[in-house]
Amino acid sequence: MPSQNMAINGKAVHFDGDDRTLLVDFLRDALELTGTHVGCDTSQCGACVVLMDGVAVKSCTILARQAEGREITTIEGLSGKELHPLQAAFQQCHALQCGFCTPGMILAAHDMIRRGAARDEAQIRHELEGNLCRCTGYQNIVKAIKAAAINQTE
Amino acid sequence: MYAFTYHGAETLEQAQELLASGDDPKILAGGHTLLPTMKQRLANPSDLIDIAGINALSGITLTGAALSIGAMETHAQVADSPVAQRAIPGLAALAGQIGDPHVRNRGTIGGSLANNDPAADYPAACLALGALIHTTQRQIKAQDFFTDLFETSLEEHEIITRIEFPTPEISAYAKSPNPASRYALVGVYVARTQNGVQVAVTGAGPVVFLATGFSQALERSFSRGALNGVTVSPEGLNADLHASAAYRAHLIGIMARQAVTTALSQKQGAPS
């Protein structure tokens, strides 16, 4: 089986597993990056969202092989020495209860802010269509994204 | 998933060779229908041929009076494309309503058309706008392309390369999405061109279809009022736990009116 390269959180990584391996399983099982979660496994809940070349994608619906030559960022790769502004905003706004959806929410928000699509509350709510929080804690999630978006544009 | 062999094709020729040599190969575009289907073991291809690396399948260009979209352009790319937004704002807006943001970052126009889901959005635009579907073998008119539930006139090893949309005078799409899946319970695309008006309906029947009664009424007068008293028969429409056939027939009228209103507002705002 041919092996391939991709960059995960800035590190070159070699994948030579079964062609069936999903990106999320490669991240969690082989690389032990368990911050990326599997919620529904049917591309609905968004707990598995990672950034692929900066763009938010559902890693449960991408083969590891499809990530060849790409740069993947997971929640573990977002912060440096300090929390990423989005992580800080989530902490400050109490934007998590059980925390299961949080990595996906933060990476979805990252993409949202990059595209300038977090202008107001209505737009943020609309943009969160692909991320489910079963604690139904959306109120503070929206608040946190709004705060992070404002901070970034200031 | 059942086991398969993955191939990354770099050219159309290479993809076609792989298609011809495989036992039961399938093309992998964005994979947002195929991979979930395979995860449920409802599909068992011997080989997956990933066409994401083929440059010839990308690009959004306006040539004369036609907007050409490469088969591997994602929904997000079409929605955000200034060229598409200017040429056919209704089409760009439709792309921005498919699924959710992450799905739109992966799902492609070519994949959506080849799959021909009865509740997919793009087929309605293709049919109403009179799109031409270019493949590795020929060009297929939209009216001849969508043949039945999940069925198209594509041959076994034929690959969609690009889709050509004649630019209309005005056009718009309106859909009533299933709140969980975001697929269209009913979606209606209304297009007014120099040759007349076409109204295409998705989500309501086993396959996308033209509502000719609506088209004729709108040709007489392109206004919401022109649709008063015009209906679509519920006979043969889909009925499931989300909506009865009669409800879907009713929604077609509502969505058509919404699309007409949006199309008329675009005319005032859009640059010529």
How would you describe this protein?
The complex is a heterodimer of chains A (154) and B (272). Chain A has helices at 23-30, 85-92, 102-114, 121-127, 138-153, and strands at 4-8, 11-15, 49-52, 55-58, 71-73. Chain A has 2 domains: 4-77, Beta-grasp domain (Ubiquitin-like (UB roll)), CATH 3.10.20.30; 85-153, [2Fe-2S]-binding domain (DNA polymerase, domain 1, Orthogonal Bundle). The mean pLDDT of chain A is 94. With 154 residues, chain A is an alpha+beta fold. In chain A, helix 3 runs parallel beside helix 5 (138-153). Chain A is globular and about 45 Å long. Chain A is 34% helix and 14% strand. Chain B has 272 residues and is α+β, with helices and mostly antiparallel strands. Chain B has 2 domains: 5-54, 2-Layer Sandwich (Uridine Diphospho-n-acetylenolpyruvylglucosamine Reductase, domain 2); 58-266, Uridine Diphospho-n-acetylenolpyruvylglucosamine Reductase, domain 3 (2-Layer Sandwich), CATH 3.30.465. Chain B has 11 helices and 14 strands. Chain B has helices at 12-21, 34-39, 75-80, 82-87, 89-95, 101-104, 109-115, 122-129, 142-145, 212-220, 245-269; strands at 5-8, 25-28, 47-50, 60-63, 66-70, 132-135, 139-141, 146-148, 151-152, 160-166, 170-177, 184-193, 196-202, 209-210. In chain B, the strands form 4 sheets. A 5-stranded antiparallel beta sheet of chain B has the order 4-5-10-6-7. In chain B, strands 11-12-13-14 form a 4-stranded antiparallel beta sheet, with helices on both faces. In chain B, strands 1-3-2 form a 3-stranded parallel beta sheet, covered by helices on one side. The model of chain B is unreliable at 268-272 (pLDDT under 50). The chains are: A alpha+beta (154), B alpha+beta (272). At the A-B interface, strand 4 and helix 3 of A face strand 1, helix 2 and helix 6 of B.
